[in-house]
Amino acid sequence: MSYSYAYLFKYMIIGDSGVGKSCLLLQLTDKQFQTVHEPTIDVESDVFATKMITADSKPIKLEIWDTPGEERFISITRAYYDVNAGALLVYDITRRETFDHLAAWLEDVRRFANEDMTIMLVGNKCDLPHKRVVSYAEGEKFAKEHGLIFVEASAKTAQNVEEAFIKTAGAICKKIRDGVFLVPECQLLFFCFCSRKAENQYSRN
Ligand SMILES: Nc1nc2c(ncn2[C@@H]2O[C@H](COP(=O)(O)OP(=O)(O)O)[C@@H](O)[C@H]2O)c(=O)[nH]1
Ligand SMILES: [Mg+2]
Predict the structure, then answer these.
(1) Which CATH number is 53's domain given?
(2) Ligand 1: does its nearest atom lie under 6 Å from the Cβ of 68?
(3) Boundaries of domain holding 112
(4) Which top-rank group of organisms is this from (predicted)?
(5) What are 168-180's pLDDT values in tens digits?
(6) What is the whole-number distance in angstroms between the Cα of residue 107 and the centre of ligand 1?
(7) Of the residues 35, 76, 88, 153, which has the fewest C-beta atoms closer than 10 A?
């Protein structure tokens, strides 16, 4: 195992089904866009990818977990919450209900996750301005009210995709500097988790 990074952060991507979670991850890791929606249904399979980034002038390895957004999977999704340093909470700017559900997602995160988890709100599909039903100002206001970082992005054009992941890492680094976030515990949990998954782990680096 290589330790050529300063920190390893584990993220999860959450939000309603169809908002573009899997596409955001694919765009980040493979610089590709998928037009067909394939529901991420098998949470037992390793639906994660790794990516090296630079944030806070440090090399950082991200391990990013894609999750299904279906209501019926929510209890399984909950099992992942407590080992995460960051979360991308995604909605679709062309579907109002995905924005309306943000409060419920957030309640879930706040209830089950490490309270120091950094959450980035992502208004996805900003390449579709003619279909927009949620304004930038609404997203920004929600983020401000709930203490989240905010960005609008497009998994299709790659606009702000890498930035979303890097900004989140920057915010986590700041928490580490301020002594708010405990890295050793986070990484320890990762290694326990990793050793259980080692046999079928894959990396898209
Ligand atoms: N136009 C556009 N379509 C997107 C974008 N992101 C995802 N999609 C489409 O939205 C659908 C759902 O995406 P997917 O990543 O599977 O959603 P998930 O259920 O949240 O993982 C697919 O048909 C994608 O092609 C985007 O940024 N722009
Ligand atoms: Mg998916």
Answers:
(1) 3.40.50.300
(2) no
(3) 7-200
(4) Eukaryota
(5) 999 999 988 888 7
(6) 24
(7) 35
